[in-house]
Amino acid sequence: MHLPDGFLDVKVWAATSFAGAAALGYCLRRSKIDRSDVPSIGMVGAFIFAAQMVNFPVAGATSGHFLGGALASILFGPLIGVVIMAAVLTVQALLFQDGGITVLGANILCTGVIGSFTGYWTHKIAVRWLPNRWDGAATFAAGWLSIVMAAAGVALLLAWSETVPLQTALSAMLGWHGLIGIGEGLATMLVCSYFAERKMTPVRAEVRK
Question: Which of 199, 206, 162 is nearest to 31 (CA)?
């Protein structure tokens, strides 16, 4: 759900640029990973990058596609999830013009921060309360809710900029991404199952004391 340049006014893209940079800086500073996990992180990042390149227009001046925040955060923790998403979004914006430069902070906040943390905590809470046989359902729910909440964030920013009325933006974004979320949930569930079955589950990001 990449926002293009020109759809957020100055106050919104300036505020989100600052907030996005601050969030990314926090995640970079507070997280650490073992070198042995780097290949897995790279593989997941490449998968998310490739999957996000397949997108299509959605009403409300944005596009719909696979997100990947829940997948990255479930495997590596939300801090590394945000870093992966920020890297993917930056490369797409700079090299492929997929998402704007001035709105990069907004895209990082919505698809990176909101998507990663929503997916992580949804999965964490669901796994804690559901029986073991429902692990797949917990992962699916994390993927689905992460993309819906990220879409809601985009809608709020569009409304704040007065680009699209809030009701119109929410209706379009949540309606489309509620459907896209089914594919997001299934992909998240399948990739996580692949890692688990092959005992490739990487070490979650550790927060420095």
Answer: 206
pTM score, whole prediction: 0.87
> pLDDT, tens digit, for every residue of 2-38?
787 888 999 999 999 999 999 999 999 998 877 777 8
Tens of pLDDT, residues 104-137: 999 999 999 999 999 999 999 998 888 777 888 9
Q: Where are the domains of the chain?
A: 10-207
Does domain 10-207 fall under CATH 2.60.40.10? My reply is no
